[in-house]
TrEMBL record:
Record SUPFAM superfamilies: Class II aaRS ABD-related, Class II aaRS and biotin synthetases
Family: Belongs to the class-II aminoacyl-tRNA synthetase family.
Protein name: Histidine--tRNA ligase
Residues of the Aminoacyl-transfer RNA synthetases class-II family profile domain: 1-329
UniProt cross-references to CDD domains, sorted A to Z: HisRS-like_core, HisRS_anticodon
Binding site for L-histidine: E82, N83, T84, R112, Q126, E130, R258, Y262, Y263
Quaternary data: Homodimer.
Source organism of this protein record: Kiloniella litopenaei
Length: 414
């Protein structure tokens, strides 16, 4: 085995893992397209400011997890830790504010320097959607419905729970922020170092703390619902009503929050226990203040992102490649003809392998190991008749078929 191994937190994708990974992205792309979402591919790296503005200078992602470096030209750039900021930057850079609403689907690698664990790597992949320009609750309902369709198509929806909460509008959020600061200030001597640093700047993030001491304090902290104004209550009621109309079940989780000020109203997560400890496989919410935070026009937005690796692990069905057809040329004359025939069949959309070495028995055994559906055997006798022997590798039956008729004869194996 080579001494050269992947960098910690990265892995190679091939075989069944690659097939499931590709299936997640393909289904995400297809489902998003049904909802009218176009695909976007943003650069894998952006100017660091893009993420510092959107994720906050004090967030763990910015302070501990981003891969940031300077270019030869002196620019500070960062490998993207998530893709919403990149989509928002693309929205601004390309002057799309005149084309609202804008709907995008994306899929690709993200990078965070965190402890590798099951379903979570330092280079990981996300699929996500963003809806910009819709300020009504119907936008939130559409985004969540898209997520439900996606999870159902993957066959994993039944293993997830939709958790839902509201963050209210700016006024409600400010009232709740004040209440949290007042509550946690009485326990400064018990807060973890991270939570203490967040108390004045971003108290909502204390509610996300994993520290056991913090979690005990959080259990008795004020709940957001007590600080919602009528506008926020009505917005959330319409979101719930829309989900009810679609038959989408959910659980209200009053502790589900987003720490940054540009988030508002709906927050949601699809969680599962099927991978061990409870984990999130798809999460999102409304972020009406994001574009403005980045220096653009006030633009409502809502979206979600999902972990491709985690979703691929949840999938139970096999994702099979089309079974190949194997051409077995016996003799020099047949080898050149085999290449021509393989090319013709590939243009006809068949998956074709050519077995060049070994005796006939070994080549047929290899074809079976490749899970081939049929073998096309070409020897001198067959070529003299401008034909080939077509063998069904499931039944063992075979027949002599004219070369020109092979493509049509193979349609039963599609």
């Amino acid at each position: 085995m080579s001494s050269l191994q992947p960098v910690r937190g990265t892995h190679d994708l091939f075989g069944d893992d690659m097939r499931r990974h590709r299936e997640v992205l393909n289904i995400g792309r297809e489902v998003a397209n049904r909802f009218g979402y176009d695909e976007i591919i943003t650069p894998i790296f952006e100017k660091t400011e893009v993420f510092k503005r959107t994720l906050g200078d004090t967030s763990d992602v910015v302070t501990k997890e981003m891969y940031t470096f300077s270019t030869k030209g002196g620019d500070e750039i960062t490998l993207r830790p998530e893709n919403t900021a990149g989509v928002a930057r693309a929205f601004m850079s390309n002057g799309l504010s005149q084309q609202l609403p804008v709907k995008f689907f994306y899929g690709g690698p993200m990078f965070r320097h965190e402890r590798p664990q099951k379903g979570r790597q330092r280079q990981f992949h996300q699929a996500g959607v963003e809806l910009l320009g819709v300020d009504k609750p119907q936008g939130d309902v559409e985004i969540i419905s898209l997520g439900v369709h996606f999870l159902k198509e993957l066959g994993v929806y039944e293993n997830t729970t939709l958790e839902l909460n509201t963050l209210g509008d700016v006024e409600s959020r400010q009232a709740y922020r004040t209440a949290l600061i007042e509550y946690f200030s009485a326990f400064k001597d018990q807060l973890s170092e991270d939570s203490l640093s967040r108390l004045d700047k971003n108290p909502l993030r204390i509610l996300d703390s994993k520290d056991e001491g913090d979690r005990k304090l959080v259990a008795d902290a004020p709940v957001f619902s007590d600080y919602l104004n009528d506008l926020s209550k009505d917005f959330f009621a319409q979101v719930k009503s829309g989900l009810d109309a679609l038959g989408i079940s959910y659980e209200i989780n009053p502790r589900l929050v987003r720490g940054l000020d540009y988030y508002c109203h709906t927050a949601f997560e699809f969680t599962t226990t099927a991978l061990g400890a409870q984990g999130t496989v798809l999460a999102g919410g409304r972020y009406d203040g994001l574009i403005k935070t980045m220096g653009g026009p006030i633009t409502p937005g809502v979206g979600w992102a999902s972990g491709v690796e985690r979703l691929a692990m949840l999938m139970t069905r096999q994702v099979a490649e089309p079974r190949p057809v194997v051409i077995i040329p016996m003799g020099e004359a047949a080898e050149s003809r085999a290449q021509v025939l393989a090319d013709k069949l590939r243009y006809a959309a068949y998956r074709v392998e050519v077995g060049f070495s070994g005796n006939l028995k070994k080549r047929l055994n290899r074809a079976n190991k490749q899970n081939a559906c049929a073998a096309i055997i070409m020897g001198d006798d067959e070529l003299a008749a401008n034909s080939a022997t077509l063998r069904d590798l499931s039944s063992g039956e075979q027949e002599l078929v004219k070369l020109d008729a092979l493509a049509d004869k193979l349609t039963v194996y599609r």
